Structure formats: structure tokens, C-alpha cells
Predict the structure.
Amino acid sequence: MSDSPKQDAQPAFREWRARRPFWGGLLLALGGAEILLTEKASVKVMMHAAAQNLAGYLLPTVMLLCGLLILFNPTQRLFYSIIGVLTSLGTWLTSNLGGFFVGLLLGAVGSCLAFGWLPDQEPRVGRRQRRKEARAAQAARTVHEAVQL
């Protein structure tokens, strides 16, 4: 038994996160949310007066939904990431230059991360772990050679 529920939840969350393009979906959703929040800026701050237009709110909402769908339905990540990058680029014209570039960049990077994610890939082994395994293998070879002599 572990000491606290937090220690039990952490490995479960890591396992859940490893089975989906987590960072891509999160960045895409954050980009959409940031653009929606900049829509609330005053008219003096806004670079483009598109807040009255439906597309000014529709495209960031689609970005937010695509980001959430990538997180919770990773099997369709290719479709959602393509829609996400297209809507991110569309916010350049409709939503204050893509949320003053921040939301546009978050959405584009998140969509690219989700598009490039491979589901059944072996986890990466860190440099320290590779060195440790190489040292252990070298020590085993040395012991094996000494026993043969």
C-alpha cells in the first residue's frame, strides 16, 4: 500500500498520458482558450475588429474542442490535428492576429505535435539509463571472460 492517494494517482496519470498525444492536445486547447480570452480585450487593445464576427469566436472554439478531442479520443488525432492547424492559421485573420500571435503559435505547435505522435512507440531510454546498462553489460562480459580463463 502506498502512503497517499496522490502517489497512486501519479503513475496512473503517467500511463494515461503516455497513451495519447498529451502535449499536442494540451497546447492546442490552450491556444484556443488564449484566443478566446483575448476576444474579451477592449476595442482599443484589439488589432483587428473581428470580435463582433462569428468567426472570431468560432475558430478558437473549434481549436479548443480539437485539443480536447485529441486528448480524449487519440485514435482520430490526425483529423483533429489537421483541423486544429487550419483553424489556428485562420485565427490570424479573424481573431486579433491569432490572439496576438501567442494562441496561433500554441495551436500550430500543438497540432504539429499531435500529428507527429506515434501510438505504439517504445518509450525513450534516457542517456543515464543507457550508460548504466552499458556499464552493466561491460562488467558482465569482464566477469564472463575471467571465468573462462
